[in-house]
Amino acid sequence: MLAVVLLAVFSYALLQSLVNPVLPRLQKDLHTTQSQVTWIVTAYLLSASIFTPIMGRLGDRYGKDRILIVALVALAAGSLVSAVAPGIGVMIAGRAVQGVGGGVLPMAFGIIRDEVPPGKVPAAIGATAALTAVGGGAGIVLAGPLVDALGVRSLFWIPLAMTALAAVAAHFVVPPSRSRQEGSINWASALLMAGWLLALLLPLAKAPAWGWSSPRAIGLLVAAVVLAGSWFVVEARSPSPLVDMRMMRVPAVWTTNLVALLLGIGLFSVFGFLPAFVQTPPEAGYGFGASVTEAGLLLLPMTVMMFVAGLVSARWVIRLGARTMFAASTTLNVIALAMLAFEHDRPWQVLVAMALLGVAFGSAFSTMSNVIVAAVRPEQTGVANGVNVNVRTIGGSLGAALMGGIVSAHTPAGGLPTENGYVYGFAALGAAGVIAALAALLVPGRKPTADAVPGRHERPAAVLHQVRKS
Known about the structure:
By secondary structure, this protein is mainly alpha-helical. It has helices at about 1-15, 25-30, 35, 40-60, 65-85, 90-100, 105-115, 120-150, 155-175, 185-210, 215-235, 245-250, 250-280, 290-300, 300-320, 320-340, 345-375, 380-410, 420-440, 460-470.
């Protein structure tokens, strides 16, 4: 069962970044413009952001095993549409369908909590969280070789085969959910949440092209504030909320989500901008003139160390506590981003910075998932992890907008970005990392133990306390 869940997680994570390095090839293959081809990434981001928490809530209500299969089928269907797309419009639609597969992550964490023996839950969650990060890095590493060997459409055919295999296996291997949250789904709340996420993330993704002062960007950001306020009121009054606001106020939950937001700013920006940095010809005063494949290999240390750190961090968080782990991870994040900003003249410097970032993100994301799982009731696991994943995505959108704005401001018309654009951009990401390190100090310092994670037949301590009190 765990092998099937990990295959599902890796398939989804791979699709997050697999097409990013080859957008110019897709632009040529689809005979479209640069502004249109970026919607291949934007559509996936927006769809995943909207559907991840919704699918998490559906899994908590109707069964995580069922919704996992739905998410995998959506990934496979979207991959098929994108693989055979004759034009840019159909491929964008396929990528939007793939975004529904964002439900794989909260379902994976929920299934592990329900089915894995309690003492092994932290390690299994750590491996799953690490594989999530590894998939994003592996997509960038594998994109070039796959395109060179099999063509650009192989970036959709291969994930199609993986997700279809995972869906069939999940049908036979993953048992029905033992814990379910009663009550109907508040679809008005779901629509409001989709509305404010769309209104927030769309201008963040397109502001470099639109301009921050454009009426579209300002109007959407204002709409995001209004819709988010309305959503909060509806959720607070609903007897069956999509996202329980009491759960979100738990200290371990909101502080972990704050760290996730700030760390996400750095992770997705590095994935998005470092390949372009190392591919820049040295004649520009920086860069190594790397190919797409070589640029991916420079990210390989980050991918490897993410996985290693994710595997071992579950043991360390039990010994040291979540606060200490977050403090160490965020500090490594700042050191690595400072290296990228000020020490990037040699390939080995980039390799070292990538390895440090891998340790930082792998240990942090593994710790986040374990803290969230231990802090909420079993029937809230899906939606709680869906929100945490979404918070990281919002952080990534903020980071990409920040980095993109700085690099664009230091790009002459018709030319390459200047070195200062990247220096100031990575330094700004490092500043966000410093804030993340400070936020880590807010995380409750109690050391979790393996026995603290509620298992299949246990009720969380908070519930037992209320029973005794009554």
